[in-house]
Amino acid sequence: MSDGIWLRFLSGPDIDALGLTRLEIVDAVEEAVREHGEGRTAFEPRVHLTPDNGGIGHFNILRGHLDGLGEHGISGVKVVGDFVPNYLRGLPSELAMATLFDPTTGVPLAVLDATMITAARTGAMTTVGARHLARRDSKILAHAGARGTAWWNVTMLDDLLDLDEIRVTSARPEFREKFAADLAVELSTPIRVCATAAEAFDGADVLVEATRLTEPEPLLRTAAVRPGAFVVPYGTVSAVELDLLDVIDKVVVDDWREARSGRFGSLRRHVDTGRLSPDTLYAEIGEIVAGRKPGRETPTERTLFWHRGLSLLDVAIAHLILRRAESADAGTMLRFH
Questions:
Q1: DSSP summary character for residue 114
Q2: pTM to 2 decimals?
Q3: Helix H or strand E segment including 184
Q4: Where are the domains of the chain?
Q5: What is the pLDDT of residues 250-306, one digit of tens each?
Q6: Which of 20, 44, 58, 126 has the highest CB neighbour number within 10 Å of its CB?
Q7: Fold match flag (6-117+312-335 vs 122-308)
Q8: 122-308: what fold?
Q9: Keywords in UniProt for this one (predicted)?
Q10: CATH of domain 6-117+312-335
């Protein structure tokens, strides 16, 4: 393959066969977050492409570069669809494709099925937030939402924390029951299925809202956030009350520019109404990971982490996959030019 330009195509099954561990993914994401906190990245907030399809879904386009990967860094672009009704067709709500490029020549290096990357990097970012913002003695995890990123959120948090109970809920009973059954096979922590979000969140130490609403609805009530709680609301459509931030001691985002961009996001109303602003924001997570600001400082602090999905994380995991695939000679080499 010395003639021309070749790139590596990695399908979903190719990636699954590489056997990446959850810890490897979390560590790769944390390193990308650290680079962001140190200013060794380049990226732009996501942009949306919304076809005239009756509002059933849209595309997100994410672009990013990390200085610390490879000889000269690595650049990448991901396109991910967000189509909530896909479950009716037996498809994931989010299907994604990523491309990696040499930042010194523009040569494309790889094309990857990024569907797993999208879900795993979200769970990994939740877990990086928990590493720095949750109480290490947290015992009860409550998770609202049972599709897509839910598996990675719960399993990665269970890897990190010595949990006594995991509570799961979803609007559809068949989804929450199957999710709980799948988790019970993978984890030793007791799983409790809850009929409502209120039941799941009541008295929990870690509260993750990952629902797939089509209209705003306050599923995570402010009163459910007890002292010492760690809250992660990141549904595309808001599922929290407007006064939620009034009880939070530290509000952390993945990136402030990203938090202000677009028209989606769990705390979009809080940004639009000025409740979340540079004055009320405590930090970007990169500042904490890089050691520029402390994370959790007391056991009674209520902390909140809102992450919208940094392109840098997709690039970091895609690069990890590419390097593993190169070592295993996995995937298919395609002639580009």
A1: -
A2: 0.92
A3: helix 173-186
A4: 6-117+312-335, 122-308
A5: 999 999 988 887 677 788 889 989 999 999 999 999 999 999 999 999 999 999 999
A6: 126
A7: no
A8: Rossmann fold (3.40.50)
A9: Lyase
A10: 3.30.1780.10
